[in-house]
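Form 12-C: Joint structure prediction
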Amino acid sequence: MGKKKNVTFDDIAKYTHFSKTTISRYFNHPDSLTLENQEIISKALTELNYQENKVAKILANGKTEFIGVIIPTFYHHYYAEILNQILSTYEDFGYKFLVFVGNEQEDTERRYIKELLAYHIEGMLILSHTIPSRELAQLQVPIVTIEREDQYVCSVNTDNYMGAIQACSLLARHQCDILLHINSPTDPSVPAYGRAQGFLDFCKEHQLEHRMYIQELGFTHETVKSHLAEILEDIERTYSGRKKGIFVSNDTHANVLLNLLIRKYGTLPDDYYLVGFDNSPASQEAVLPISTIGQQMDKLAYEAVSLLVDQMNERKKRKPVPLAEPIHKVITPILFRRETTEK
Amino acid sequence: MGKKKNVTFDDIAKYTHFSKTTISRYFNHPDSLTLENQEIISKALTELNYQENKVAKILANGKTEFIGVIIPTFYHHYYAEILNQILSTYEDFGYKFLVFVGNEQEDTERRYIKELLAYHIEGMLILSHTIPSRELAQLQVPIVTIEREDQYVCSVNTDNYMGAIQACSLLARHQCDILLHINSPTDPSVPAYGRAQGFLDFCKEHQLEHRMYIQELGFTHETVKSHLAEILEDIERTYSGRKKGIFVSNDTHANVLLNLLIRKYGTLPDDYYLVGFDNSPASQEAVLPISTIGQQMDKLAYEAVSLLVDQMNERKKRKPVPLAEPIHKVITPILFRRETTEK
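Section 2 - Result
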């Protein structure tokens, strides 16, 4: 790293013939200077090679260009992909990401967040579910959540309800006799609840026979597999000989269910239609590519970082105007028809 | 975040009745104080709530507790899992991780590393392949690489050669008539080269008929699938009626090959034996769980962070002793026998 001499406010003041107070105002409240003076100082910083010492910059204005990211788990391939997209926004915004995987450990997450705040991170993207948004809102740092409970904080979510309607419409168009939905118990405050609600509303509105399998499936492949095997056994027994349209609440689980069927029959039987959710890599890499409701992960990530950066920039103004209400952006999902429905 | 008043060296000096110079020495060269005095200052810091302001700490001693991580891509599930394990070491070491995904963009990686250094990160874990270790070694920051070319820097790698021997032994024990190896062109300086070398040496030593399919398979699921479909066609044509033992260089590709076979035959035919590499989630979640040479990802991650922290701590000493030679740790792989060989 080498111990380069820091460029001080003194150095900049001497170089530009401004007072130290003016230099300080440039860093803390640039809006209070004329554009012309801002440019003179900005040019001087480049010439003095000031950019190179970010620690000095943190000192000067408390801004680190760090964003904290909290991922709940990597079991769902969805999270690796959305993290990938978040990290890729470095090219657009220049922010660096301090990443943490919570693994549902609420206390560890709290401790980690506290640490991040001590480092003067500028904002946080929260994907984990453990800490209520009411508590997050009190942290005094801009926060944007993605696909989790978000009443008191800004968020970017997929239109899950619309996605469920798309999935059910597709299954209904294939004249399935019975529509089934497999999901974990989800609180109505969580965006993904729209997947179950949309399923129910669609089936009721179109008077379609339907059934929901709502149960905790677990967080490891083995437990998910054994729970889905039980559900599949029940489906086989109860709906034998009928055309079944199954909407699974995520691709990772849809893939497990598909594999159970393939192992039993060598192929997806004619009386099974299957739609997942997420368009995660699991859906494309499955033995039969799985039809799915695609979350636009690049857009979700871009919009989330963009919304966060807006808030972070507002706080850098001389007189920041706090948001009156949290902003909730909604991204439209996209239906991908693949081999589990188009046969 | 709130603008808390920073606790200054002055405050600590007054509180402890030490001189400011002593306080400064505590942060920069703690070894130069007696243990007793270290404890007095350490206690004062807690009482003054000094810990809370890490930015002040960075200022004081230039140590950020940040480690930069560069991941090449998330296409191979291996990288999501190893990142997961790296992030989980937060619990053991307390270091925070600035994560970047390079996507084979050498220039972006260089730019990102330059930025990280400007932030006074304490060390870097490099998993991407773009920048030669000779260049990395000149960066003047502790570096540990995982599973990439590592001549001039410290590294932690799986014993790839041993893994290949394990895979071939298993296939040989099943009396395969022909041993096949599918891999991408790999430079001998990359640890994964041991997979091909081990295959060759084992087959020659045991005078087993063998063939290597070495070609670039691509970085998206679609290109990998179409290349593997061509290879499979050649295998079917050339080795029809013979018992084939296929050692694929990673689980992601082994899974694609397995799915091609399952789609064609409804099951894995009796004359195919398949072993992958990595024990990545793809191998467990496959339609038939895939036998694989398991990289001990938790150990790889732990040892890599541990080796890095050792170097980082050395640099904090008053008279750091640089390593005479880079340290290369090797982790033994573990054979997992699953359904693609045990039938």
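Section 3 - Comments
Chain A touches chain B through 58 residues (CB under 8 Å). Residues 166 and 177 of chain A are 17 Å apart (CA to CA).
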